[in-house]
Amino acid sequence: MTTLRELATHLGLSPATVSRALNGFPEVGEKTRIRVVEAAKALNYRPNTSARRLATGKSGMVGIIFRAARNLLVDPHFVEYLAGLSMGLAERELDLILRHAPPGAQLASYQRLIASGAVDGLVVSAPEVDDRRIAMLTERDFPFVVHGQVGENVTYGFYDIDNHGAFSRATELLIALGHRRIALLNGSAGLAFAVQREAAFRTTLAARGIHVPARFVSHSDMSEDAGYNQAAKWLSGLHGLAPTAFLCSSTLMAIGVMRAAGEAGLEIGKDISIIAHDDVLPHLRSEHFSTPLTVTRVPIREAGLALAEMIHKRIGGAAPKSLQKTANVDLIVRNSTGAAPQDGGRSW
Hints:
This protein is of the alpha/beta class and 348 residues long. It has helices at 4-11, 15-22, 30-42, 49-56, 76-91, 106-116, 132-140, 163-176, 192-207, 224-235, 251-263, 300-315, and strands at 61-67, 95-101, 121-124, 144-147, 157-161, 182-186, 217-219, 245-248, 273-278, 294-297, 324-327, 330-332. The strands form 2 sheets. It has a 6-stranded parallel sheet, sandwiched between helices. A 6-stranded mixed sheet has the order 7-6-8-9-10-12, sandwiched between helices. The protein is elongated, with a radius of gyration of 25 Å.
């Protein structure tokens, strides 16, 4: 690899001028900066991390803190999101620091990481409705972006998907198929995306005069076991009339519902219908399920890639409100949804 001095000699410039050009100092002219950057690429020059930190005052690191109460490193949703985030950061020559925090210690962990000077910015995941992390980071004016959005007209950068639109359309599809007993298997209570999805579900049903008992809306981790246990309970009939349709916040939950339905002797797409949100997880393709699954669909890896670009720009001084994106969600209809069974139009 070429050294800074060798690159400077090649260009006929001083090492100080080359360093300033590579680090974006304003006193270096644009033509010189472009010439230096192009030569650095051609000669495979990579700046020494310690030297770059001394020159710019930046660490070249971005942090993410996850909850230690759950082993997210075996959660396929988180791993796929992390893959996109780390790839996007690497393309911008930024490294990722992963930290975990025990329950109740999230805020303190963020404060310690900021105080250490180890990171130039933070990516906040799984925002809650009343998220103290976001409030603290905003107050400190520390560079951060959020995977999700809490409320309307927010002042921070974020990448989100149209949760409300996605679950409204999914609910409308089930209603159009004649279903009146629709159950929701949602993510953990209090998380912003789960609140948005439940609001869309309830609002869409209410607009059609359809009531859903509170016991047929569940909140849990988005796992196969959670989907199975909840669906098995509902299908047992112990809680009254069973649902004829299930709306799930993940394909993992839907797999559990399918297993419970099979044990109950029910045919997917005929006796019951299932729709799930599909984050497009590798090795878990909803179109290849034994009964291809109807889904609302957007790849979660795109969230990681988008947030990497956003935090890079935010660290560079971009205004937070210029770093806001809500992605559209596709509705893909497959064989797991069908007309309600004979008594499916009967409400609870």
